[in-house]
Design goal:
Number of helices: 4
CATH architecture: 3-Layer(aba) Sandwich
Shape: globular
Helix content: 10-25%
Oligomer: single chain
Order of helices and strands: EHEHEEHHEEE
Largest sheet: 7 strands, mixed
Number of domains: 1
CATH topology: Rossmann fold
Strand content: 25-35%
Distance between the termini: 13 Å
CATH class: Alpha Beta
Structural class: alpha/beta
Strand order of the largest sheet: 1-7-6-2-5-4-3
């Protein structure tokens, strides 16, 4: 599915994504990967999804700390785990941060920016979103949500 993301429709797109990924019941965490150039809007989309989950804390890109964990007010997802793999050189570095344990917690939503840096950690049933610049105020989203 392709969507055009603008400032005035980010709330509805985040809500739609969250509704669709909430439908499936899994034995592990739900993983959403966000790919795109620097400044494409990966963290902006994550912030809006966090709001939809009832998180009131300020969401910032975890580029320097790699990972931030937030408690939500959502019934399906109790935690949002926001990972920025931009600074990671390979999958082993994420594994060293406890990735295998994190991904097992079924009531967690994991949003990972820069998944291409840790390809061995991206499970086959990950929901994938590609964000591309269209112009200053608009982004194109290519959304591939697993059933």
């Amino acid at each position: 599915m392709e969507k055009e993301l603008k400032e005035d429709n980010i709330k509805e797109i985040a809500k739609e994504i969250l509704e669709k990924i909430s439908m499936g019941v899994k034995d592990a965490a739900t993983l959403v990967t966000l790919s795109g150039d620097l400044g494409a809007g990966k963290t902006t989309l994550t912030k809006e999804i966090a709001k939809q989950l009832g998180i009131i804390e300020r969401i910032i890109s975890p580029t320097f700390v790699i990972m931030k964990i937030y408690k939500t007010k959502n019934k399906r997802f109790k935690k949002l785990i926001h990972i920025d793999a931009y600074r990671l050189k390979n999958s082993k570095e994420l594994l060293n941060l406890g990735w295998e344990e994190l991904i097992k917690v079924k009531d967690s939503l994991v949003i990972m920016e820069w998944p291409e840096n840790v390809p061995d950690c991206v499970c086959v049933d990950a929901h994938k979103i590609q964000i591309e610049h269209k112009n200053e105020t608009t982004r194109n989203l290519k959304i591939n949500l697993c059933p």
